[in-house]
Write a structure and sequence with these properties.
With 396 residues, the protein is α/β, with parallel strands linked by helices. 40% of the residues lie in helices and 16% in strands. The strands form 4 sheets. The chain has a 7-stranded parallel sheet with strand order 5-4-3-6-11-12-13, with helices on both faces. Strands 1-2 form a two-stranded antiparallel sheet. Strands 7-8 form a two-stranded antiparallel sheet. The radius of gyration is 20 Å and the shape is globular.
Length: 396
């Protein structure tokens, strides 16, 4: 069928399989062109189907010829209904990995659950023996706790005071003012339960208990700090508390892995267009301005550029992994350059609906958003029929 984007608020409810496939191929070609990385050879990516997780799986496989297992929770296609984009991404990745002679298998289900952890353990035992690198890149808004059975929902709210600032509807380009009420009740605890480090630690404990972690194993979770412009609603809000918990968990995991010389890191990454970030007020306007400046400076990166650089210049240099004063890997260094942030702050004050097209890269933001769902990808004929029923070889 001919597949077109259908929007519902900040979400696209359709995905284009050919566009998703081309996106994956483009990322693979980028990694291959950047050369070999002397990295881990047996890699587990938890949250492997989109964004930084997908980029991590691609970089591991096509940068280091790693065998990869990807865990994700995606909607499969059915006749007349498209899958979620992560399904098509994963199908394309597996296909390209297998053509290259690389091991790649996937598990589709709730990564927070004991059942999916056990399924992953069984697959590692059967096929890989042990794991050298675990990437933790989950971005779910809800979590069913596997022990208590409580369903936790995260919220994006400031703490203490109402937050008021500019935002943009990236579809229309209209700049407006938005106010977000502060959190209340159990909002902080629920957000930490979903987006903090507890599940990451549970994965590591489960793998370690089965002797599936190789000596010298590394595990990396992804985080974000951002500028002062967004900190009230992000880093100093409920999500920030969850990120604080995630970062503290890295130290606890490192302590737990001392006997096998393992280490856990949090990598602070750049602001990028993802399904999650598109729904956060203020962030789309910030990213649109940031993109304008970073592209003019020649330092712009998407997910694949960011993760390829993380692997090549931080994780696998052969020396000590550089970290900041809080033990975090900083691959947001280009975004947070003082000259870049000063220019963003200036444009932020200037931004109104009438001048936004001129002073921002809103068009680049829109393009990246549609790319997430396989649309607006160069070289794809969107007027042609596409087969929506695509199988993931190791699942269907």
């Amino acid at each position: 069928m001919i597949i077109e984007p259908r929007m519902r608020g900040f979400i696209c409810t359709t995905a284009q399989p050919v566009g998703c496939e081309q996106n994956v191929k483009n990322q693979i070609e980028y990694v291959k062109a950047k050369g070999t990385i002397d990295g881990a050879k047996r890699v587990l990516v938890i949250g492997a189907s989109t964004g930084f997780g997908l980029a991590s799986r691609i970089t591991s496989a096509f940068g280091s010829e790693a065998a990869t297992i990807g865990v994700f929770f995606e909607k499969a296609p059915s006749e007349g209904k498209t899958a979620s984009p992560g399904w098509y991404n994963s199908a394309a990745f597996e296909n390209e990995a297998h053509k290259a002679g690389l091991y790649a298998k996937s598990i589709n289900g709730d990564a927070f659950s004991n059942e999916i952890k056990q399924q992953t353990i069984d697959l590692i035992k059967a096929d890989l023996g042990q794991i050298d690198l675990i990437i933790y890149s989950l971005a779910s808004p809800v979590r069913m706790h596997p022990v208590t059975g409580v369903l936790h929902r995260s919220v994006l709210k400031p703490i203490g005071d109402v937050f008021t600032n500019k935002t943009v509807d990236f579809h229309s380009g209209k700049v407006s003012e938005i106010s977000i009420a502060p959190c209340s009740g159990d909002d902080i605890e629920n957000t930490v339960a979903v987006m903090g480090g507890e599940d990451w630690a549970m994965w590591i404990d489960a793998l370690k208990a089965e002797n599936l972690l190789a000596p010298g194993v590394a595990t990396v979770a992804y985080s974000y700090i951002g500028p002062s412009l967004t900190e009230a609603v992000y880093r100093k809000g409920t999500i920030g508390r969850a990120k604080d918990h995630l970062e503290a968990t890295a130290f606890a995991i490192t302590d737990a892995l001392k006997s096998i010389d393992g280490k856990a890191f949090v990598s602070v990454n750049k602001a990028l267009v993802t399904q999650a970030s598109s729904a956060i007020p203020v962030i789309p306007l910030y990213i649109s301005l940031l993109y304008k400046i970073m592209k003019e400076e020649g330092i712009h990166e998407g997910c694949i550029e960011q993760i390829q650089r993380l692997y090549q210049e931080r994780l696998f240099t052969g020396g000590e992994i550089p970290v900041d004063e809080k033990g975090r890997i900083r691959i947001d260094d280009l975004e947070m350059r003082s000259d870049v942030q000063e220019k963003v702050a200036f444009l932020w004050n200037e931004a109104v609906t009438e001048n936004l097209q001129e002073i921002s890269d809103l068009e680049g933001y829109r393009k990246d958003f549609y790319n997430l769902f396989g649309f607006d990808v160069a070289g794809v004929d969107y007027a042609a029929d596409a087969n929506e029923v695509v199988a993931i070889e190791s699942i269907m």
